[in-house]
What we know:
Helix content is 37%, strand content 16%.
Amino acid sequence: MPEFTDKLALSTLTVSAGRPAQGPDVPLNPPVVLASTYGAGGDLEYGRYANPTWEAFEDVLGALENGRALAFASGLAAVATVVDLVPVGGVVVAPRHAYLGTLGQLSDLTTSGRLSDARLVDIADTDAIRTAVAGAHLLLVESPTNPALEVADLPAAIAAGHDAGAVVVVDNTFATPMLQRPLDTGADVVVHSATKFLAGHSDVVMGALVTAHTARGDALHAELDARRRKVGAIAGPFETWLALRGLRTLALRVERASANAAELARRLVAHPVIERVRYPGLPDDPGHQRATVQMDGAYGAIIAVEVRGGAEAADRLTRTTRLWVHATSLGGVESTFERRRRWATEIPTIPENLVRMSVGIEDVDDLWADLVTALDALPGQRR
Ligand SMILES: Cc1ncc(COP(=O)(O)O)c(C=O)c1O
């Protein structure tokens, strides 16, 4: 693979990194390597240890995050692998409104005694992080959080974790490296659900970890790679190839989807059926100032709205659109939304009427027209 430096723009790296060296008859794209085993005596040896399609994906993601990437079977496989580095009886600090699957893992690990404590904090409250992280082994930050869209003060949170001697991991799924690069702010590891924006087409489940170019990052990379081999939570080569193909258009997709989201958030604020809009791009959002400082000129493609009329009205909204697809997950080219508390496992402090919206790359006026028709049709809500 050619060497790329941080002198290239991120949008160039999405296109140019992770390709075979150019030459006559060399395919421009790395092939899907379907191999459970390789001829003995080389670097690869076995399909659970290495795969050239992983390496191409890892080269691109590593270049974008300014670190070294490892592909995993899913975002949660990546989370589980990094949490597994915590010693038996160790302590983890995490956002109380982190992705529910992450919280589910931490809950199981404390119940079983594998962890002595998982301290859950308001990740926007840096003082709370400072207090909680004393004696902890790992600080897991998610910013913006899923689905409450709280914004951590990333530099302060990362410093607090390091001051306490903890490994600091940042889930960068919502922002993507196009908008936020936590390793440049001092984090040790970045985690991704590549299922979301990185792959970007709602056809792949995959995850990744990216370690910093530091002595600690290199040590973590070796440990995480070893865990991946031993536990076997590896990505399929075809999924990885699809995710790599998705990465090629990440810059364009994130730019367009974020612009659509910013416009829709502005319009939603003015709609009488909407009680509250959570979007860091709105000037009066609690996370706006921080996001403006630590994100690159856009605020991502996820909005959360609270719908007047409670869970019933929110459910009705998600069932009456034509373009917006009622579905879980996020980060695809198509706009999707769901009421988060329809999941019994969602955190009870997430309001019953909160609808998480993942804005796609369609025409913004078409998206708005579809939405406003459904909002105006809610019973008793006519303007
Ligand atoms: C922020 C965040 N982290 C991690 C995950 C888990 O990723 P996956 O579903 O790929 O296992 C998700 C999934 O929704 C997520 O939103």
